[in-house]
Amino acid sequence: MEVDPRRDHSWHVPRPDMSKHIGTPNVCSSCHEDKGTDWAIQTLTQWFPDSNYQNSQHYGIAFYAADIGHPAAADALSYIAQDINQASIVRASALQRMANYQGQNSLVALGRAVKNSEAMIRIGAIQGSAPYPAHQRWQIIAPLLNDDVLAVRAEAAGALAQYWRELNPLQKDQLKAPLQEYIDIQQYNADRGFGRTNLGNVYAAQGKPKLAIKEYQGAIAIEPYFENSYINLADLYRSQGDEASADKTLALGIKNQPKSAAIHYSAALSKLRQGDKTTASQLLDKATQLEANNPQYWFVYGLSMETTDVNVSLKAVDKAYQLSRNPEHLFSKCDLMLKHKHQGAAQCLNQLSKLAPPEVIQQLKSRY
């Protein structure tokens, strides 16, 4: 209910070994505050030398890997999503996190999930299919438009509505009834920011900007701390070529929600489009402070600082790579080093050579 922290009322085998690796809490260290995690691991090993739990695989490791963008997360999430021994909520959570990881294994997991008997898992598949293009996402989740469960039908309709202009007449006709159910649900929740924002998203996708703006503004009036309302309204203004209104909307968002990294990031992009690099860099710097584990914020901040302070730029891009392990971020770091004749360029190229195709490395070396 977002009112106060809630316990999940479940009993788990203490896993101090996971605490050591990914920082999750465990009941041993929570009580014995004067002892360390290593003490808890050693004690449990002595008490239960034949335990199958300590140092065993756990979905928490995969979720942590997904949160930090580890390359191995994709396969791990796919495995968990299809593991019938896992609880439905765990499998659904794995599917939801797969939104950041496309690939053949992910597609297989999503395809199986939409046929699962558990509604929670089917909804997880809808959320996990988010990154796929319209035609592919339609193929994955369109069968759920006729689902027996209203929540599933509505979730699928809301997800596919964003591609309204790309759908053919037959697809729009198939979407019509469940989309109306989705709209009815949002209108019922119109006293909340998310309800109004969701309505705005539908109208924006359908090419009804005036109705969309009305809903976004209504969401802001009702819940001025709901960050998506500002970002989506600003995006709509931007698409109409009204950057001034987008900038004004995001400035209001920062005023009402000063701890929102997403609003600061969106405001920075608006400033960049207006040619105000100084203010954009300041906003990006703030976004990295508010959400220090977001590699995209660090990456764009680094690029924005190239003409101002190359060292700051390199540190930020390197931070992005350390968080994401995305070879593209490392490529950008090497590119910056070569461009500015940095002494660490050779070392960077050597590191990149283990991840990038030979022709890419050769092209960069030709500039060295």
What does this entry show, briefly?
By secondary structure, the protein is mainly α.
Describe the protein's architecture and organization:
- There is one protein chain.
- The protein is an all-alpha fold.
- 67% of the residues lie in helices and 0% in strands.
- It contains 22 helices and no strands.
- The protein is globular and about 60 Å long.
- It starts with 15 loop residues before the first helix and ends with a helix.
Keywords:
single chain; 368 residues; mainly alpha; 22 helices
What are the SSEs and their pairings?
Blueprint: H1 16-22, H2 27-31, H3 37-47, H4 59-67, H5 73-81, H6 88-97, H7 104-113, H8 119-128, H9 134-141, H10 150-161, H11 169-188, H12 193-205, H13 209-222, H14 227-239, H15 243-256, H16 261-273, H17 277-290, H18 295-304, H19 310-324, H20 327-339, H21 345-352, H22 358-365
Helix pairs in contact: 1-3, 4-5, 5-6, 5-7, 6-8, 7-8, 8-10, 10-11, 11-12, 12-13, 12-14, 13-14, 14-15, 14-16, 15-16, 16-17, 17-18, 18-19, 19-20, 20-21
Mean pLDDT: 92
Over the alpha carbons, how many angstroms does the gyration radius reach?
Answer: 24 Å
Q: Structural class per helix/strand content?
A: mainly alpha
Strand content: under 5%
Number of strands: 0
Q: Which residues form runs of ≥5 with pLDDT under 50?
A: none
Overall form = globular
Roughly how many Å apart are the termini? 56 Å
Q: Mind describing the biggest β-sheet?
A: none
- In DSSP terms (H or I, runs of 4 or more residues), the helix count works out at 22
Element string (H = helix, E = strand): HHHHHHHHHHHHHHHHHHHHHH
What is the percent of helical residues? 55-70%
